Amino acid sequence: MGRAHKASLIDSDHYLLICQRYIELNPVRAGMVNHPVEYRWSIYQSNGQGRDIFCVTPHDIYMQLGRTLTERCESYRLLFQQPISPNIIEELREYLCHNYPLGNDKFREQFEHVHHIKFGHKKQGRPNVNK
Predict the structure, then answer these.
(1) Tell me, what DSSP letter sits at residue 54?
(2) pTM for the complete prediction?
(3) Phi/psi of residue 102, each to 5°?
(4) Contact 20/43 with Cβ under 8 angstroms?
(5) Is the dihedral of CA 53, 8, 104, 112 positive or negative?
(6) CB of 118 within 8 A of CB of 28?
(7) From residue 35, how far is each of 13, 26, 62, 87, 106 by CA, in Å?
(8) Rounded CA separation 62/58 (Å)
(9) How far is the C-alpha of 26 from the C-alpha of 37, rounded, in Å?
């Protein structure tokens, strides 16, 4: 049986490039390739190498990495010279596992308010009825 698709809303201003690095590095962590550029299906081919891929539309955050395609590609490649901290990886996995929106407190509070949904961990066990 296959795995279920997981997705989470993200605050792109703060997390888009981190999430892209996390995704691009999955084949590396899995031992499939040594670097994201080697993975055929990676968006790194577009963002880091400048390859024109018909189904890829660059995000505004990516476009802000430089004035020209060459500058953007270089900036994107530089992102991969720094490892993602284990704490950030853990946070990404936790939010993805539970389909929580990933962002700062203000981002999550706005989302919860607009959609009348409360995210976060609830204590295990029966609720305290004496409150």
Answers:
(1) T
(2) 0.76
(3) -105, 115
(4) yes
(5) positive
(6) no
(7) 25, 10, 20, 22, 35
(8) 6
(9) 12
Structure tokens at 81: 């010279």
The pLDDT tens digits of the residues spanning 24-78 come to 999 999 999 999 999 999 999 999 999 999 999 999 999 999 999 999 999 999 9
CB atoms within 10 A of CB 72: 19
What's the burial of 103, exposed, middle or buried (CB within 10 Å: 0-12/13-18/19+)? buried
Can you read off the two tokens belonging to residue 95?
């939010």
Report the amino acid identity of residue 66: G
In the structure encoding, which two tokens stand for residue 126, read together?
């029966």
Residue 68 half-sphere exposure toward CB, CA atoms < 13 A: 3
